[in-house]
């Protein structure tokens, strides 16, 4: 087991809030980077107040802010510019997702900061990018999902829906993370820093590739079908007699025949002219689904899954979020780890990439300004200066 994480020695300064930028920097912190999170004095990142469900802390915040240091700093205060310049001189990465134009007004734009530190990788995460007609538009996740077309292909024909997670934020955060790693790698070869821009809109439109090309060249969008499929049957959710929801995804004739014989116990259905080919099954989907629902109503979820496994038919249990935490695939593989928070220890999931020789960093989630004094001392501020900065509200 190696003792040093891959990004040990990398320092990230992040004027971050909400989800996209903090999600990117948490990935860097997991791999050993020092992440200094710059927050508003007192209230901090407004995502701290989204809810109070994790022992009084926000579920969003604890998810994406472990292993960071919190510096409480009023970026508009006169002394803030010198503090930020001192931080940036020693940083490898500066990341911000402030309101459009705010970074430039605060002296935190790419051109000026890379003048302070030419090796700096400057990253700006925004809703729609730094130019174009939407550059100043509000970019909350549901709004970007709507503009990018995700809502148009999610849900049912009667009820379009946004996704239940912050998909636009997450996509931008992951592209920012990947871009930063690429820029760090390039700097190792060239010695040059870089300026990166990532927008929620561009990131999510990239993820919309299938429905976008399907619609642009096919003339109409894919049908909104809930958990069902726009062209395949049986495909979707079916309820067992004990209330367990089972999702089927039968996509070839061999599976279909095994399903009829072993699960439905009616092998003749496989050769019924209404159901003997994929196109016919979809054309008679309502009749087919009624038949499956009737059979599944006599099964418990466990019995149904046993038969589906015996038949080697693709399936899943549609789990409520209350079941996922205890999912056997997570529990048996030891995916949960303890992490300290200002409200006491909680359990968090390991990052999804397993890397040989690397044990991910899973350090505490910081309180607002928890590391302010230590960071300022590292920057050469005396105890008297730190007290003065606290007194005038700068930190």
Describe the structure.
With 395 residues, this protein is of the alpha/beta class. The protein has 17 helices and eleven strands. The protein has two domains: 11-209 and 327-391, 3-Layer(aba) Sandwich (Rossmann fold), CATH 3.40.50.10540; 235-317, formyl-coa transferase, domain 3 (2-Layer Sandwich), CATH 3.30.1540. It has helices at 20-30, 59-64, 80-89, 102-105, 110-116, 141-147, 167-190, 200-207, 209-218, 253-263, 278-283, 285-296, 301-310, 321-324, 328-331, 372-378, 383-391, and strands spanning 11-15, 34-39, 68-72, 93-96, 121-126, 194-199, 235-239, 245-249, 315-317, 336-339, 346-349. The strands form three sheets. It has a six-stranded parallel beta sheet, sandwiched between helices. The longest helix has 24 residues, at 167-190.
Spell out the key features of this protein.
formyl-coa transferase, domain 3; single chain; Rossmann fold; elongated; three-stranded antiparallel β-sheet; alpha/beta; six-stranded parallel β-sheet; 395 residues
């Amino acid at each position: 087991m190696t003792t040093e994480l891959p990004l040990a020695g990398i320092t990230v300064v992040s004027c971050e809030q909400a989800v996209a930028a903090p999600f990117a920097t948490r990935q860097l912190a997991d791999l050993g980077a020092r992440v200094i999170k710059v927050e508003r004095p007192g209230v901090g990142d407004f995502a701290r107040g989204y809810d109070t469900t994790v022992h009084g802390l926000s579920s969003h915040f604890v998810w994406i802010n472990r292993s960071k240091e919190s510096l409480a700093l009023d970026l508009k205060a006169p002394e803030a510019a010198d503090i930020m310049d001192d931080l940036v001189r020693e940083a490898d990465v500066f990341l911000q997702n402030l309101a459009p134009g705010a970074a430039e007004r605060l002296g935190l734009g790419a051109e000026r900061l890379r003048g302070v530190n030419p090796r700096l990788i400057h990253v700006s995460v925004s809703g729609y990018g730094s130019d174009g007609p939407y550059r100043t538009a509000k970019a909350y996740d549901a709004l970007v999902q709507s503009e990018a077309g995700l809502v148009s292909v999610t849900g049912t024909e009667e009820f379009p829906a946004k996704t239940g997670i912050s998909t636009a934020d997450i996509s931008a955060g992951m592209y920012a993370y990947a871009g930063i790693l690429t820029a760090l790698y390039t700097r190792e070869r060239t010695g040059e820093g870089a300026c990166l821009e990532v927008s929620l809109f561009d990131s999510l439109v990239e993820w919309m590739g299938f429905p976008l090309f399907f619609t642009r060249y096919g003339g109409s969008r894919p049908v909104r079908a809930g958990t069902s499929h726009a062209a395949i049957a049986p495909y979707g959710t079916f309820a067992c007699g004990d209330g367990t929801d089972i999702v089927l995804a039968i996509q070839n004739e061999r599976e279909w025949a095994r399903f009829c014989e072993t699960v439905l116990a009616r092998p003749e259905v496989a050769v019924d002219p209404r159901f003997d080919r994929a196109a016919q099954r979809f054309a008679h989907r309502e009749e087919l689904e009624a038949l499956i629902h009737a059979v599944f109503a006599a099964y418990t979820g466990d019995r149904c899954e046993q038969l589906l496994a015996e038949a080697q038919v693709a399936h899943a249990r549609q789990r409520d979020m209350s079941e996922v935490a205890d999912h056997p695939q997570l529990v048996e593989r030891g995916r949960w780890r303890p992490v300290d928070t200002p409200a006491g220890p909680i359990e968090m999931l390991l990052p999804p990439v397993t890397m040989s020789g690397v044990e991910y960093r899973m350090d505490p989630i910081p309180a607002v300004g928890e590391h302010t004094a230590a960071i300022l001392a590292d920057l050469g501020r005396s105890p008297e200066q730190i007290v003065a900065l606290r007194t005038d509200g700068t930190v």
